[in-house]
Amino acid sequence: MSAPAGFRRRYGASPLHLLLVLVSFALAAYAGLRLFEGDALGVAVWFVGAALLHDLVLLPLYSVTDRAAQALFTRGSGPTPPVPRVSVNYVRVPAFVSGVLLLVWWPLVLRRVEHYTAATALPADGFLGRWLLVTGALFAASAVVLVVRTRRWSRAQRRARSATK
Amino acid sequence: MGASGIGEGQPDGVPPPTGKEPGKPDAPPVAGPPPGRAPGARKPAPPKVKSGPLTRLREAGSTALGAGPPPGPARPEFWRSPLRGPWLTAVFGLVLLFGITVLFVTGLLSYAAYNPDLAAVNDQTPNKGWLGFYLFSWPTSPYWLYRLTQGVHVTLGIVLVPVLLAKLWSVIPKLFEWPPIRSISHALERLSLLLLVGGAGFEFVTGILNVQLHYIFPGSFYTLHFYGAWVFIGAFVVHVAFRLPRALRAVRPRLGDPAAGSEEAVGLLSPHPAAPTISRRGALAMVGLGSVSLLVVTAGQSIGGWWRRTALLAPHGQDPGSGPNGFQINKTAASVGIRPSDVGPAWRLTVRGPGRQVDLTYGQLLAMPQHESALPIACVEGWSTTDQRWGGVRLTDLAALVGLGANTPAALVESVQRGGSFRSAVLSDSQVRDSRSLLAVRVNGAILSADHGYPARVIVAGAPGVHNTKWVTRLTFGGTG
After folding, report:
1. How far apart are CA B162 and CA B182, in angstroms?
2. Which spans are transmembrane here (chain A) (predicted)?
3. For residues B446 and B397, what is the distance between their CA atoms, to the nearest angstrom?
């Protein structure tokens, strides 16, 4: 067996793979030593926490919420298995958009920044109201789309029925 | 607009293509595999590695756990979304490749804009060592350069949040892949992924909190965000090197998905997908709509003027007042402890040069030749203003008071502000010599307000906001703190 093949068997990838990873680790260590200079424990918690925040906190939360919404929109009951309906998207899409707006701007929306007005001379009390209005507008737009599509669909149905008569 | 993509998925009433529990798309199989799965989907492909300590360890683990992943997320069939697959992950990945590259470059530019090598007071990360290898003297032209680069940095970072989350969602089965470690290279790659995902999350979270002045992170924002970026970027480059060819293959036009469990599926396709409620393009449109919405409620704070009112949720989406001084304030006079006596009749401007010093009263400063420059305020937090009409004394004219001619050196600018960062800054010689650089006493035709730096503030073309020192009391030409 040739040397590169032997390396690949023992390591699991090419020598270039190893070199590239080691270069990146050296850079990470060089910067990491400086990153951890102050409150090392705090930084470690934030860094690892940031890695896990989505996968272990946000994802289970929104998956369960989405499943609950799907159950609401499921059609059929009894012995036949229920079928999820695409109409769940009329709630899912505006809820998603409203959710990411809150996820990014929650410190201002939920008034967590005490010194905001003192520093900027700007009023701090409007963010929650504006976020609620945006959320309302998103759901309203979704409702309009739903109404328009339902009307179009039922008109097409009527036309199809009268054509077959 | 709120229902993009609907109708592209599985139409209502059509039975799901596979699966026995369509109503429970992500139901974890608790005991044993659910029936109706493709054979062989449960067990990972037999390893190519023949022997070695890791292999033996894994074999021992497999024997102990009953050959195969334990019940739960480690089993491929636990993940039921029909959306996951190489194509969707590749699209998000390619968007992030472009976006994060722009974020990194504009971030490096922002650090350079502070001229950290010029003086200790300009450098928030003095331990940077070789990480400052690329630094250069920040130019004064075009005067809107920092406004553009930092506006892009912050706005793009915010706009990418839904894409980052969607990317993480699309690869979640890989977090639980079984066996957790297949080889030494795989172990190193997973460690690198911790730096990648942790670094990305760390950078996005610290940045987004900082622009909202929510300083709950464990240390100085500059230290955390700068070194965090360097920890992240190595893992990012490695990830791109390892995955870009695969991503480009995945977005090539093709008919249908590769088979679940195949090498091309790279562990992303569900072997037991639930009935779709939205198409992949629909999901992509939903994520895009999230990004566009964030752009709409944010970008106005960087564009300014009429557009500012559209930044409904951004920290600087409103105007603090009206009139000549009614534009954005970074820190008010009260918030940094400026007392009326500091800037009252006793205020003096001290101008120092090599071996000479001149003290000017406010009246004497006003009596000097007055010039005008139209320049914006652009903050590291990403917000900025349109050009304001500043009036005041050229920095070169002040240097001339202490006998310095055309070759004016760098200058240390000090504020009456007692504490906090950026109460002083060193301006480079090119910044001082620019004819637009003023010690301003007026703005838009009015006397400076207390919050904008009365009695006098520096305004320099292209400099970050905090280098336009307010409440200036001393200028030391040739001084670097």
Report:
1. 31
2. 44-65, 86-108, 128-148
3. 22
Cis bond leading into B180, ω under 30°?
Answer: no
Neighbours of B281 (CB within 10 A): 15
Which has the closest alpha carbon to A48: A38, A35, A61, A60? A35
**Whole-structure pTM over 0.80, yes or no?**
yes
The total of other beta-carbon atoms located within 10 Å of residue B145's CB is: 18
Continuous H helices in B297-337: 300-303
Say which of B2, B238, B282 has its CB closest to residue A138: B2
Q: Are B218 and B226 in contact (CB under 8 A)?
A: no
What does the pLDDT average to over B199-226?
Answer: 98
DSSP β-bridge partners for residue B472: B415
Question: Whats the size of chain B, residue-wise?
Answer: 481
Encode pLDDT of B403-414 as tens digits: 997 789 999 999
Complex prediction ipTM: 0.94
pLDDT by residue (tens digit) across B120-133? 999 999 999 999 99
Question: What tokens were used for B466?
Answer: 């905090």
* DSSP reduced 3-state for B161: helix
DSSP state of B275: P
To the nearest whole Å, the CA of B254 is away from the closest chain A CA by 25
Question: So what CATH class is B334-477?
Answer: alpha beta
Q: Helix B184-211 and helix A15-35: axis angle, to 10°?
A: 40
Q: Which residue of B277, B331, B338, B381 is the best one to mutate when testing the A interface, meaning the one whose CB has the most A CBs within 10 A?
A: B277
pLDDT at A75: 73
Instruction: Choose, out of B174, B202, B298, B335, the residue to mutate when testing the contact with A (most A CBs < 10 Å).
Output: B202
* Nearest-CA distance B436 → chain A (Å): 26
Nearest to B318 among A10, A24, A123 (CB): A123
